[in-house]
Structure formats: structure tokens, C-alpha cells
């Protein structure tokens, strides 16, 4: 009984530590992204105060839409999918894309109230550049990890 309790505690602690590491990593990436975007856009203090709430709200809403779509896809039984179920899923996919497009349109309109159009275009480039750099870093670290004994 005592060994079972110890095993459960160790399992719980390792799961918690792994989740904490993931959260720490996500927070680090978010911090790097904020710094990168702020530098690339050369935001003034006033612009930053207005920009970041809009940006963070958009990111959070997009994350929720992606998460919901992922959860829906996880529930699909592809082996036993009927034509009617597939049609319903396509309808959901379309609705999800419409929601994302509406959210993005609102986001751009909100940004235009606080940033110049040039800075909005530079924002898109900065986001793309940041993603590319993160992906390259991920590949590099993964490759280094393979080479270790």
C-alpha cells in the first residue's frame, strides 16, 4: 500500500512538473514574441498601451477557436463516418472559418484605430519572422538532441 501511494505521488509530481515546464516554456515564448514585436514595430508607449490589449484579446479568441476545432476533430470516428456526419462536419468547418475570418476582420479594424497601416503590415511580417525563427530554433535543438549520446 505504501509503495502504491509513493508511486502515485511520484507520478503526480512528474506530471505537474512537466505541465509546469510546458507553461514556463509557453510564457518564455510569449515574452520573447512580445519583445520581438515591440522592437520590430518600434511602438511608442501610447501605441503599446492600446495595441497589446487588442492583440492579446485576438490571440486568446483565435486560440479558443483553434482549440474547439481540435476538440471536435478528436471526436471524429473516421472509420465509421457516415455521409451525413461528414456533411455536418463540413458545415462546422465552414462556420469555424467564418468565425475566424470575422474575428480577423474585427482585429484589423481595431488595429487601424491605434496603429498606422504600415505598422499593421509590419506586424504581420514580424509575426511571420518570429514563427520562422522559432521553428528554426526548434529544428536546431531537435537536431542537437539527436546528436547527443
How many helices does DSSP assign? 4
> In terms of structural class, how would the helical and strand content be classed?
mainly alpha
- Average pLDDT for all residues: 86
Gyration radius over CA:
21 Å
DSSP helix fraction: over 70%
Morphology: flat
Beta strand %: under 5%
| β-strand number | 0
Main beta sheet, described? none
- Give the termini distance in whole angstroms: 38 Å
Question: H/E series, N to C?
Answer: HHHH
The unreliable regions are none
What does this molecule look like?
With 149 residues, this protein is an all-alpha fold. The protein has a domain of 104 residues. Helices cover 88% and strands 0% of the residues. It has 4 helices and no strands. Helix 1 packs across helix 4 and helix 2 packs antiparallel against helix 3. The two termini are 38 Å apart. 3% of the residues are buried. The model has no long low-confidence stretch (mean pLDDT 86).
Amino acid at each position: 500500500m505504501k509503495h502504491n501511494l509513493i508511486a502515485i505521488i511520484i507520478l503526480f509530481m512528474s506530471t505537474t512538473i512537466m505541465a509546469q515546464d510546458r507553461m514556463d516554456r509557453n510564457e518564455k515564448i510569449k515574452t520573447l514574441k512580445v519583445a520581438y514585436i515591440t522592437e520590430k514595430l518600434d511602438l511608442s508607449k501610447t501605441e503599446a498601451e492600446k495595441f497589446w490589449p487588442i492583440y492579446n484579446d485576438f490571440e486568446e479568441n483565435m486560440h479558443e477557436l483553434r482549440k474547439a476545432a481540435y476538440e471536435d476533430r478528436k471526436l471524429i470516428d473516421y472509420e465509421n463516418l457516415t455521409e451525413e456526419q461528414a456533411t455536418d462536419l463540413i458545415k462546422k468547418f465552414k462556420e469555424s472559418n467564418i468565425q475566424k475570418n470575422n474575428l480577423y476582420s474585427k482585429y484589423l479594424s481595431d488595429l487601424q484605430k491605434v496603429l498606422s497601416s504600415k505598422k499593421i503590415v509590419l506586424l504581420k511580417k514580424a509575426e511571420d519572422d518570429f514563427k520562422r525563427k522559432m521553428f528554426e530554433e526548434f529544428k536546431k535543438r531537435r537536431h542537437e538532441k539527436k546528436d547527443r549520446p
